[in-house]
Specification:
The chain is mainly alpha-helical. The protein is built from 42 helices and 13 strands. The strands form five sheets. Strands 10-9-11-13-12 form a five-stranded mixed beta sheet, with helices on both faces. Strands 1-2 form a two-stranded parallel sheet. The protein has a two-stranded antiparallel ribbon with strand order 3-4. The radius of gyration is 33 Å and the shape is globular.
Length: 1008
C-alpha cells in the first residue's frame, strides 16, 4: 500500500480527460533537443544544475532505455509554480522586474560582473535613506507641536528617494524585457532617444523631470492621490528613457512569459511502456493502512472521555466547572497523540526512524557533525541575539514595570489557586481569561521557588518572550522557503535581522516584561505563519497536523489567538488560487470548493438537524438523547473529517481535494486539543465570551445574557462607522500614534522606533517587488495576516480609547518586523555573497554581520530610553507606588506584630489590599477592610487560621489621610493608641512626588 500520500509534497498531476489544461495556461516548454548550441548555453547559465543533468542524461541514454522520472523536466510536475521558481526575492535585483532566461542571453558578462556591486550600492543607499526617513518621522510623531498639526517634517521625501532607487534599479535590470513586451513603442522611443545629439538632451530632460515629479510627490504637493499619480508618471518617464536608450537585444523575448513567467526545459525522452497493457490502479482503501482505521475509534473514545471526565459535579450530579482531572487529562493527551498518529504518522516506519535517531544521537556522530558544520556563524549570531534579547528583558527587573496592577494580582491569585490544587481550563474572574499562563506562573512560583509575587509573573512572560526570538528566525526561513540554497540563505539572513530587531524592540520588551499572558500571541502567530507557509508550498500532512495543534493550543493562551484560523483559511485559499492559470480554471476551482464543502458539511448538517428534532420531542429520554447529540457535535465533526481527510489524501487527486484533505485533518487535530475548552464555552458561554463582547459592545449591552449571532451582527453593523475609524487608528499605531494606555506605552508613542519604522516602509516596497516577480501566495498572505490580527484592537467599539492597543494587536508584530528585517537581511545576504577573502577570512560575511550588528546597535539606544526611562516614569506617574507604601506593613508583620494583627481600611480609589499583602510578602493576607466596622468581624473570622489575632502583640491600622471618620472610630474602639503619619516618595516624569497616609498602633489586648 502507498503510504506517501500523507507526508509528501504534491504529486505530479496525471493527464486526465476530465481535467484538461490548455497549453497556453501552463509554462512555456522548451524541448532540449531542439535548442541550438547558443540557446543551450543560455539555459545552462540560467539553470545550470538542471540543464547540465538533463544534457548528461540525453548524451548517456541508450536506445530503448527507460528514462528516469526526473528526466522529463527540470522540476517536479504538479508542484505549484511558486514552489519551483528558481530564484527567491533576491532574484528581483538580479534580473529586474521581469525575469526571463532571455534577459541573461543578451549581456551575460555584464550581469555577472556588475550586478552584485550595483545591487549592494542601491540597497545600501536605500537602507540609509529609509532609516533616515524613519527617524525623521518618529521625531515628528513624538514632537507634540508637529504631531498636533499632522506634520511629518518631510519624512516622505526620504522614503520616496529610497523607493525611487530600488524601483528605478528594478526597471533598469528588466529594461530588455519591457522592450520586448512593447516592440512598436520601443522602436519609436529608440528613434527619438537612442541617437546622439539632441535626443540625448531629451533623455536628460526626462530624467530631470522624473526627479522633479518624485520631489513633488515626496513633499505631498498634490495630495495623496496626486502624489501617487506623480510617482507613476516619474516611473513611466524613467522606463521610457531606459527602453529608448537600450540597444536591441539579440534574443527576442517570448510574449508568453510575463512577469513571474515560467519556463520548463523538457526532453523528448519518455518512459518505454508495454503496448496494450493497462496498469491496474489500486483503490483508495488500499492506500489507507489498516492501523489508521483501527486507531480512529480509539482516538474518538478518548476524546469523548476528555470531554466528559474533565469536569466537576455537584451532589445533584450537575456539572459545575470544567477542570482537568487525572483521568480526563491523560485521556485528552492520549487522544491528541492518537489523532496525530492516525493522520500523519507512518507506524510501520518507526523502527527504522528509531535506529536513525540512535545513530544521530551518538557522540561520534555529533563530533563529525560539528566538524562539518558550515553555518557556525548562524548559530553564533542567533545565540548572540538571544542573549541580547534576554539582557533587555532581564535588566533592572525590579524597576520596570515598577508595580503590580489589579490585572496582575488577579493572575497571581489564579496561579495560587493552581498551586492549591485547582485545575481550571478557563478562569472566569476579571472578565474571563485563558488558563495556560496560570500554570506557567504556578510552576515558577512553586517548583522554581520564586514565590507568588510580581517577579514570578515577570519571569514567566520573559521566558516566553525570549523563546519567541528563535521562533521568529525559524518563521522567516519558512516564509522565504527552503527549496533552494538561495531561498535558505536569504531566509536565514532575514530571520537573523528579524530576531535582532525584535530583541531590542521596546514594543516586544514591554510585552515580555508586562507579566501578562499577552506575550504568547506573537509566539503563536509566528508558529502559525511558519507552518502555514510550509502547508501552502509543500502540502504535507505533518505540517497540517502541526498547524492544527498550534491553533488548538493557542486558544488556551490569549483571546487574540481566536483570530488565527482566519489567516489559515485565507492562506489555503491563496494556495489554491495560485494554481489558476486561466479563467475556466477559476470556475473549475470554485466548483470543486463548493463540492468539497457540500461533501464535508452535508452529513454534519443532517446530524445537527436530527439532534434538533430529538430535542423537541415530548419524551424526556428522547430529548436527553438529542441534547447529548448536540453536545457531542465536535466529536462527530472529528470522526467525519478524519475519515474524509484520509480518503482525500489517499485518492491521489490534486488541487482542491489534496488541500481540502489537509485542511480537514488540521480541523481534527485542532478540535482534539480544543475539546476541554470547547466544553467550557458550551456550558458557560457568558464567561467565555464576556471579555470579547464587553470590548466590542460594552459591558451592559446584553444585560448578562447570551445573545444570538444575529443580534451581535446587527449591533456591530450599527457601529460600523466606529469600526472604520478604529481600524484607521490601528493602522497608524506603527509610525504615528500608538497605544494611549499608560500600562502599555508612554504618551502614545508609535510602536516602532525610527530605524525599524523606516525599514518597514522600504520592506513594504521590496515585498511588493517580490509579489510582482513570483507566483508565490505566501507573499500575499502576510499583508492579510496584519489586517486580520489588527481586528482584536480595531473591534474595541465600546471603548475606543483602548484602540490602538499594543497588546491586542501584538499578533501583527511578527509580520511587521519581518518587513522591517527584509532590507537589512537582503544587504546581509548580498554582502555575504561577495567572493572576497583575506587570509582565508570571508570579508563579505564579516561585513554582513557588521552591518547587522551596527544597525541593532543604533536601535538599542532609542528603544532602551523609550522603555527604561519614558515608559517607567510614565507608569510610575499613573499608578501607586506600592513598593514604598508597603514598607511599614512589612516591617510590622516581620517584627513586633504579625500579618493577623495588621489591617488596612479601604478608601475610594486608594489601595488594593491584595497587592499590598503580596508586596508585603504574603499574598494570602485577608485583612483589607471594606468598612471600618468590619474590624471585629475580621478578627473573629481569622480565628484558627494563620492570620489569627495575637493579643500579646499590638494592632496596626493603615488608613487614608482624608479618612477622618476612621481616625475617630479607631480611637473610640481601641483607645490609648498612637497615630503617626507615614510619608513616602517616588520618581515620576515631573520629578520626585510625595504621598502620605496614617498608621494607628495600639496594644489592645483581648478583643471581644
Amino acid at each position: 500500500m502507498n503510504e506517501t500520500y500523507s507526508d509528501s509534497p504534491i504529486e505530479s498531476p496525471k493527464p486526465d480527460a476530465q481535467d484538461p489544461t490548455p497549453a497556453a495556461a501552463g509554462p512555456q516548454v522548451v524541448v532540449f533537443e531542439d535548442l541550438t548550441l547558443a540557446e543551450a548555453l543560455t539555459y545552462l547559465v540560467w539553470r545550470p544544475g538542471e540543464t547540465a543533468r538533463l544534457f548528461w542524461r540525453v548524451l548517456t541514454r541508450r536506445p530503448g532505455e527507460e528514462a528516469p522520472p526526473s528526466a522529463a523536466g527540470i522540476g517536479p510536475e504538479g508542484v505549484p509554480s511558486f514552489a519551483r521558481e528558481p530564484d527567491a526575492l533576491g532574484a528581483s535585483l538580479d534580473e529586474g522586474l521581469a525575469p526571463t532566461p532571455e534577459s541573461l542571453a543578451v549581456h551575460p558578462g555584464r550581469k555577472a560582473v556588475f550586478v552584485l556591486p550595483a545591487r549592494l550600492v542601491v540597497l545600501a543607499l536605500a537602507l540609509l535613506l529609509a532609516m533616515q526617513g524613519g527617524v525623521v518621522l518618529h521625531d515628528a510623531a513624538t514632537n507634540l507641536a508637529l504631531h498636533l498639526k499632522g506634520e511629518t517634517n518631510d519624512a516622505g521625501l526620504w522614503f520616496m528617494l529610497a523607493g525611487a532607487l530600488v524601483f528605478g534599479f528594478e526597471l533598469f535590470q528588466g529594461r530588455e524585457w519591457w522592450a520586448g513586451r512593447f516592440p512598436r513603442l520601443t522602436a519609436w522611443l529608440r528613434r527619438r532617444l537612442g541617437s546622439d545629439g539632441v535626443p540625448r538632451l531629451w533623455s536628460a530632460g526626462l530624467i530631470v523631470l522624473a526627479l522633479v515629479l518624485i520631489w513633488l510627490a515626496a513633499v505631498n504637493a498634490a495630495g495623496v492621490w496626486g502624489s501617487a499619480l506623480l510617482l507613476a508618471l516619474a516611473g513611466l518617464l524613467w522606463l521610457a528613457v531606459l527602453v529608448g536608450t537600450t540597444a536591441p537585444g539579440d534574443v527576442e523575448v517570448s510574449e508568453s512569459a510575463g512577469p513571474g513567467g515560467e519556463f520548463v526545459i523538457r526532453s523528448r525522452i519518455a518512459p518505454v511502456g508495454k503496448a496494450g497493457v493497462r496498469e491496474a490502479r489500486p483503490s483508495v482503501l488500499d492506500n489507507i493502512p489498516a492501523y489508521r482505521l483501527f486507531l480512529m475509534p480509539v482516538a474518538l473514545v478518548l476524546s469523548a472521555l476528555a470531554y466528559s471526565l474533565n469536569v466537576t459535579r455537584s451532589p445533584q450530579d450537575e456539572i459545575t466547572d470544567v477542570v482537568f482531572t487525572t483521568g480526563g487529562f491523560f485521556a485528552w493527551v492520549l487522544s491528541i497523540g492518537l489523532w496525530i498518529t492516525v493522520l500523519a504518522v507512518d507506524v510501520r516506519g518507526l523502527p527504522g526512524r528509531l535506529r536513525a535517531l540512535r545513530a544521530w544521537l551518538r557522540l561520534a556522530a555529533w563530533r563529525e557533525r560539528l566538524r562539518a558544520f558550515q553555518g557556525w556563524w548562524t548559530l553564533a549570531a542567533l545565540t548572540a541575539i538571544i542573549v541580547l534579547g534576554a539582557f533587555f528583558r532581564l535588566a533592572d527587573l525590579e524597576s520596570t514595570p515598577p508595580e503590580m496592577t489589579s490585572d496582575h494580582i488577579e493572575k497571581l491569585l489564579d496561579a495560587l489557586r493552581v498551586s492549591d490544587g485547582y485545575r481550571g481550563v478557563f478562569f472566569p474572574n476579571n472578565g474571563g481569561r485563558e488558563g495556560f499562563q496560570m500554570y506557567v506562573v504556578a510552576f515558577f512560583a512553586d517548583t522554581l521557588r520564586v514565590g507568588f509575587n510580581f517577579k514570578a509573573l515577570k519571569l514567566a512572560s520573559i521566558v516566553e518572550g525570549v523563546i519567541t526570538l528563535p521562533a521568529l528566525w525559524w518563521m522567516a526561513r519558512q516564509v522565504f522557503g527552503t527549496d533552494t540554497d538561495k531561498d535558505r540563505r536569504l531566509g536565514n539572513w532575514v530571520g537573523l535581522a528579524l530576531a535582532g530587531l525584535v530583541a531590542v524592540s521596546s514594543w516586544h520588551v514591554m510585552l515580555s516584561r508586562l507579566a501578562l499572558r499577552i506575550v504568547l500571541t506573537p509566539l503563536t502567530t509566528a508558529l502559525v505563519i511558519g507552518f502555514l507557509a510550509r502547508v501552502m508550498r509543500h502540502n504535507r500532512m505533518r505540517d497540517y497536523v502541526a498547524l492544527g495543534a498550534i491553533l488548538g493550543a493557542g486558544a488556551y493562551f490569549y483571546q487574540a489567538n481566536r483570530m488565527l484560523p482566519i489567516p489559515v483559511v485565507i492562506g489555503i485559499g491563496l494556495a489554491l488560487l495560485g494554481r489558476v492559470r486561466a479563467p475556466r480554471d477559476l470556475l473549475k476551482l470554485a466548483g470543486e470548493v463548493i463540492g468539497l464543502a457540500a461533501l464535508a458539511l452535508t452529513p454534519l448538517a443532517a446530524y445537527w438537524y436530527i439532534g434538533q428534532v430529538l430535542e423537541q420531542s415530548t419524551y424526556a429520554n428522547v430529548r436527553e438523547l438529542g441534547e447529548r447529540l448536540a453536545s457531542f457535535t465536535p466529536l462527530a465533526v472529528m470522526l467525519w473529517f478524519c475519515v474524509l481527510a484520509l480518503i482525500l489524501r489517499a485518492s491521489g487527486k490534486q488541487g482542491v481535494l489534496l488541500y481540502g484533505g489537509g485542511l480537514l485533518a488540521l480541523v481534527v487535530v485542532a478540535l482534539a486539543v480544543y475539546i476541554p475548552l470547547y466544553h467550557y464555552s458550551e456550558l458557560f458561554p457568558e464567561h467565555f465570551w464576556d471579555r470579547t463582547r464587553g470590548r466590542i459592545f460594552g459591558e451592559e449591552a446584553f444585560e448578562g445574557r447570551d445573545p444570538s449571532l444575529g443580534e451581535q451582527i446587527d449591533l456591530f453593523w450599527d457601529r460600523r462607522d466606529v469600526f472604520v475609524d478604529n481600524y484607521g487608528d490601528a493602522l497608524r499605531m506603527f509610525h504615528w500614534e500608538g497605544d494611549g494606555a499608560w500600562i502599555n506605552n508612554a504618551h502614545a508613542r508609535p510602536a516602532l522606533d525610527g530605524i525599524s519604522g523606516g525599514l518597514v516602509i522600504l520592506g513594504i516596497l521590496l515585498w511588493g517587488v517580490r509579489g510582482f516577480r513570483r507566483q508565490d501566495p505566501v507573499i500575499w498572505l502576510l499583508p492579510l495576516v496584519v489586517l486580520v490580527m489588527l481586528l482584536p484592537s480595531a473591534m474595541t467599539l465600546a471603548y475606543t480609547i483602548e484602540n490602538p492597543s499594543f497588546t491586542r494587536a501584538s499578533g501583527t508584530l511578527p509580520v511587521v518586523f519581518l518587513l522591517a528585517a527584509l532590507p537589512l537581511g537582503m544587504v546581509g545576504y548580498y554582502l555575504a555573497r561577495l567572493p572576497l577573502r583575506i587570509w582565508r577570512v570571508p570579508v563579505g560575511l564579516i561585513a554582513a554581520l557588521a552591518v547587522l550588528g551596527g544597525t541593532l546597535a543604533a536601535a538599542i539606544g532609542p528603544n532602551w530610553d523609550n522603555y527604561f526611562t519614558d515608559y517607567r516614569l510614565s507608569y510610575s506617574s499613573s499608578w501607586k507606588p506600592y513598593r514604598e507604601i508597603v514598607k511599614p506593613l512589612r516591617t510590622f508583620a516581620e517584627g513586633e506584630g504579625s500579618y493577623g494583627n495588621a489591617f488596612m481600611v479601604a478608601y475610594t480609589h486608594w489601595l488594593d489590599h491584595r497587592i499590598l499583602g503580596t508586596m508585603a510578602g504574603d499574598i494570602r493576607w485577608p485583612n483589607g477592610l471594606v468598612s471600618r466596622d468590619d474590624v471585629l468581624y475580621a478578627i473573629h473570622r481569622n480565628e484558627g487560621t494563620p492570620y489569627q489575632y495575637d493579643p500579646s502583640r499590638p494592632l496596626f491600622f493603615m488608613y487614608h489621610p482624608s479618612d477622618t471618620a476612621t481616625e475617630r472610630y479607631l480611637a473610640d474602639m481601641f483607645p490609648g493608641g498612637t497615630t503617626e503619619t507615614y510619608e513616602y516618595t517616588w520618581e515620576t516624569e515631573s520629578g520626585w512626588s510625595q504621598g502620605q497616609y496614617y498608621i494607628y498602633r495600639v496594644q489592645a489586648g483581648a478583643v471581644e
